[in-house]
UniProtKB/TrEMBL annotation:
Family: Belongs to the acyltransferase CrtO family.
Protein's organism: Cyanobium gracile UHCC 0139
The protein, known as: Glycosyl-4,4'-diaponeurosporenoate acyltransferase
Role summary: Catalyzes the acylation of glycosyl-4,4'-diaponeurosporenoate, i.e. the esterification of glucose at the C6'' position with the carboxyl group of the C(15) fatty acid 12-methyltetradecanoic acid, to yield staphyloxanthin. This is the last step in the biosynthesis of this orange pigment, present in most staphylococci strains.
Keyword Manganese carried by entry: no
């Protein structure tokens, strides 16, 4: 029984270390993306075939209530930018914020599949736990980036609504 406890502890440690290393690697690679790679939408960051709207994200997901609770790792690497520091309304600032939302979307899309790797050392129940963890830790971030992406696009098109406006 003691051997099983050690084995379980090593599996948990392997997961924690794996998630940490994968997160750092993905974040570092995304940080190194050249600006031109983020100046336009791709099939990953572009509009979806289902209806999307900023108000849909606000009403159905209540993003404005919980968005401030999510961490921003934009400054994790030298030269990075915290998305909340890009508050200007000028075109250059808004375009930079749009690029940063694309970068964050790509990061969270790339982080999520690490749960599959855990199948190398975990039983199915452990893999399922990692799938749930990956989904719960990345999906809200993806929703937030999509919400921000739509808000910034509207601002760039000159159709900005202030909080509280219809």
């Amino acid at each position: 029984m003691e051997g099983q406890a050690v084995s379980d502890a090593l599996a948990v440690l392997a997961c924690a270390l794996g998630w940490l290393l994968w997160s750092v690697l993905v974040g570092w690679l995304a940080h190194r993306l050249p600006p031109r790679a983020l100046d336009h939408d791709t099939w990953l960051t572009g509009r979806r075939p289902w209806p999307e709207s900023r108000s849909g994200f606000e009403k159905r997901l209540a993003i404005r209530r919980w968005k401030s609770l999510l961490p921003d790792a934009g400054t994790a690497f030298p030269g990075g930018v915290a998305k909340n520091s890009l508050v200007g309304r000028d075109r250059a600032t808004l375009q930079r914020l749009l690029a940063e939302t694309r970068r964050a979307e790509l990061v969270h899309l790339a982080l999520w599949p690490f749960w599959i790797v855990t199948a190398l050392w975990l039983p199915p129940a452990g893999v399922l736990i990692n799938l749930v963890f990956a989904t719960l830790s990345n999906l809200p971030c993806l929703w937030l980036q999509r919400y921000n992406h739509l808000r910034v696009e509207r601002a760039l098109q000159g159709r900005v609504r202030r909080p509280g406006e219809g």
